[in-house]
Please model this.
Amino acid sequence: MTILVTGGAGFIGSNYVLDWLAQSDETVVNLDKLSYAGNLQNLASLQDNPRHVFVKGDIGDASLVPALLAQHQPRAVVNFAAESHVDRSIHGPGEFVQNNIVGTFQLLESVRSYWGALAAPAKSDFRFLHVSTDEVYGSLHKGDPAFTETHTYEPNSPYSASKAASDHLVRAWHHTYGLPVLTTNCSNNYGPYHFPEKLIPLVIVNALAGKTLPVYGDGQQIRDWLYVKDHCSAIRRVLEGGKPGETYNVGGWNEKANLDIVRTICGLLDSLKPRADGKPYADQIAFVTDRPGHDRRYAIDARKIERELGWKPAESFETGIAKTVAWYLSNQDWVANVQSGGYRDWVATQYGSAATAA
Ligand code: NAD
Ligand code: TYD
Model:
């Protein structure tokens, strides 16, 4: 059996592909357009693995995707592909509309056509799993209950609005055409291979480089953090047992203010890799201008996935962040390659033309 994963060279997608191949005997066709966020070095350990088929391409490509589906006959599609950084969406929303909305629309159309022609039981067993975010629900005030699956959609950034639009398309393709879809709305992830434009990896990388640690506004914005491997296990569980048409919120029950996150990382680095001058890394913290429209608080109520599918995160924030800091300390080459842009040459160097072949 085969699954098609989109966006599998990004942060969460590459963790998912690595976990999937380690835990099942199925083949993964990995379709990724290798935007700045796609890094095949994350998958270097799979270079000789015949069960990993990498294809460089766009989910919105109406020739390539149908050809891939016809060739590989996947039993499921897991859609991670998206532009994912809120700050970039503020500077350039067009890419988010194109990749996240138009791309998902086109992918749904390609999948609908493939699925429609499947014979029983492949047709009823097929699943399209759309990976989304808690940011579609908007911002909570202190004391508000956490987001449930029935919370109103109130996206505030171009990123969250584009994800909300894609969620609506996925929902409509189920209700109108019967496509067996599943949607997961997950809180902020962190862990290995996280691109250092996002808060946690940026702080680790900047701290070690002696740079400032930029905290937006007052640093009291709250996010609900989940270790990336726990997100991967939740997606596996939803794919296996989720009910078509349903959405599942995924979270780590770890609400933390940004400033506390930054201080925790500084404390870990103080013990694991003390500064040469003996001063604390927290001295590098700098409060900077706030992000426009900055959502104040996200919090996920993850009781449905626990009740219905028996999923719970394995990591606490304390264990997950310790693993993450340790990973960045022992993968300085990965960081250096990302910072130099060297990872972008990896496709040509390591995969040659095979990486672009359908
Ligand atoms: P990422 O930016 O690290 O990776 C995205 C990947 O998708 C990249 O490899 C990129 O090349 C690829 N991609 C983008 N547009 C594409 C297109 N049109 N066709 C093919 N490939 C394309 O993102 P991430 O943090 O790994 O997030 C993955 C998914 O999970 C996204 O859909 C995101 O909205 C969702 N999500 C992320 C978080 C988080 O905290 N990072 C939390 C909840 C949900
Ligand atoms: P980020 O990792 O970009 O994820 P998201 O915006 O999707 O939640 O940011 C997490 C939080 O950290 C968010 O409240 C913005 C804040 N932040 C900073 O304070 N400084 C930074 O340099 C970055 C990148 C984010």
User: Anything to note?
Assistant: The longest strand covers residues 127-133. The chain has 13 helices and 13 strands. The two ends are 19 Å apart (CA to CA).
